[in-house]
Amino acid sequence: MRAVCFEAFGAARDVLREVELPRPEPEPGEVLVRLQTTGVNPSDVKKRAGAFPDLLAEGPVIPHSDGAGIIEAVGEGVPASRVGQRVFVYQAQHGRGAGTGAQYVSIASHRAPDLPDSASFEVGACIGIPIMTAHRCVTADGDVRGAWILVTGGAGRVGYYAIQWARRFGARVAATAGNPADRELCLAAGAEYVFDHHQPGWGAALRSQCGQPMDRVIDVEFGANLPEVIDCIATGGVIATYASTRVPEPAIPFRTLMFMDLTIRMVIVYDMPEDAKMHAIEDTQEALAGGQLAHRVAEVLPFSAMARAHELVEAGRTGGCIVVTLP
Prior knowledge:
- The strands form three sheets. Strands 3, 4, 5, 6, 13 and 14 form a six-stranded mixed β-sheet that branches. This protein has a six-stranded parallel β-sheet with strand order 9-8-7-10-11-12, sandwiched between helices. The chain has a two-stranded antiparallel ribbon with strand order 1-2.
- The protein contains eleven helices and 14 strands.
- Helix 2 packs across helix 11 and helix 4 packs across helix 5 (159-168).
- The chain is globular and about 60 Å long.
- The chain has two domains: 2-126 and 295-325, Alpha-Beta Complex (Quinone Oxidoreductase, Chain A, domain 1); 130-270, Rossmann fold (3-Layer(aba) Sandwich), CATH 3.40.50.720.
- It is α/β, with parallel strands linked by helices.
């Protein structure tokens, strides 16, 4: 099979290389998926750049956690009826070297759930990290019906889905975005108010405009946004955050947060409880089957442009998901 792998850390164009590898065989409990697409996420490019120094200890790595395709074979213990099913794959390159940056991946059957016929393989490559992260951020701390939720970076790969999940589960939503086009996307996704996160004082302005503080905040830039979030979150509120790129080691104003009785929840798909993953998958399948989720796929690139896909994610200027098609 054709695959992309890296055996050293570094820039995408320096270390990603196309190789021919034996097609894997499914072990007991596994399915063999002929991938049509692979999704590229920030965690994938960080791994390739060296964020996890021990990652290459057991040899070269085929990158990426997310993808979508068709089951071609099953291992012992998996029903033969799964052969031919359209599936999405999540958590492929986690704790091992075999990700979705290849024509085939063999993976535990439950990590390859059914992909509804109404969803494209491009959309399937956006489920694992973007959609499931957004779902966890919205649902992890209980019922949101009637609550006010702020989604920072609401036009981004996770934020865009978080707005939709929050609305689907009965919340009212405010969002932030950095340009007029993204602000329109947030409104179309279901946000009632959208604020420019480049403008100082947006937190107080949001609270004033909405007429009340936010019960929960779903945050893409925890360290950078925290001062503004403090100005608009309610006492007893929850911050669910999944990234802090601009300020990777933020200082916490402990006394302020303590006297507001705030909860800070860190979210990463790999280590979500299994029941939370299953909950996200079931809700996602239902929403996709009903055509009830809008998607923002920023780029669909060919296999030969894998390095370019990594560069787009690293640059952070392309809204939405980056997907690569497999040959």
